[in-house]
Give the backbone structure.
Amino acid sequence: MGERIYLDNAATTKVSEEVLQEMLPYFRETYANPSAIYSFAGEAKKAVGIARERAAALVGAKPNEIYFTAGGSESDNWAIRSVAEGLSDRGRHIITTKIEHHAVLHTCKYLEKNGYEVTYLDVDGEGKVSPEALEKAIRPDTILISVMAANNEIGTIQPIAKIGEMARERGILFHTDAVQAYGHIPLHVEEMHVDLLSASGHKLYGPKGAGILYIRENVRLLPLIHGGAQERGRRAGTLNVPGIVGFGKAAALAGETMRERAEKETALRDYLIDRVLAEIPYTRLNGHRQDRLSNNAHFCFRFIEGESLLILLDQQGICGSSGSACTSGALDPSHVLLAIGLPHEIAHGSLRLTLSAENTREELNRTVEALKEIVGRLRDMSPLYEDAVKGGEIEKCTAKK
């Protein structure tokens, strides 16, 4: 086995050297609690303020609109539950999509058990939500719309600005889960009419356990965690200063390098996609071909199981995934793939490869050669593949409409 090839950056990225170096002093040297009143604590408090400014600048927000959390799932939960509970006297209807991250979907399911109604919008075969369908779903008692900026599995980018405009015109709060998009595509909360935005540091070469929730300054959101007065009384708990500093540095670096990274990743992504589709028959690309994250390539290989594919890739030192890292180990096929119309037997053969700008064409060549060998071997063992070949029943792998 050669050197490891890491192609699971949608699950997590490694902490960059610049981020790590900026974090280190806040573990052992400037370790004071920033909530204390002595001058030593003031150094940590200043560092948190700089990180808040950096996190805000990446999306055109004001620093006082940024609240630090433990990550994207917490931010999603906080936004949705607090809006629902705080505006229950105005209405109990929420709109989201069928392809959201489970941090959103499971929170909505929780609310449904507590007297709220949720509309789960369909998406098309490429994973896009229709603004027209969303408009039809709006009711007088709709209090929140939550649509992710970009899908964590198939990479499709949603028409966030259009959705935000529709929500703002109707006085409905708009939340976007931007965990996969923050730092990877341009986002501007004012231009996109976003009221609430979730992001996580470990998706952009920052540390795990550090995230943000952007809350537009005139939105009054109930606290998710009760206790101390941290984060202006909205999110209790001693601040994770090293993580916050790392998040801020990662956000600053992401803003500086976004265009360059996107160009390099797009070239690598398209090279990978073109080779896989051309050289491995009965393979489908999932997600929108152009409106997708620059580092995302998501495939379905007919007549094989994705789990077996991942295990054999791992044996060759190649790291990928079959979907969201938060649902790894689940036996059911991806809810995202089912939502775009794929039957179970095709959805089970999925593979998500997500790159970084550090990946090379040589690594992708090795990955494609490994895929060709492994997919061929697994198909040779598949009675379904044998029957389809002999019977001439193989059809092009397309989504059901």
Q: What stands out?
A: Residues 396-401 have pLDDT under 50 and may be disordered. Residues 80 and 107 are 7 Å apart (CA to CA). Residues 241-279 form the longest helix (39 residues). The two ends are 42 Å apart (CA to CA).
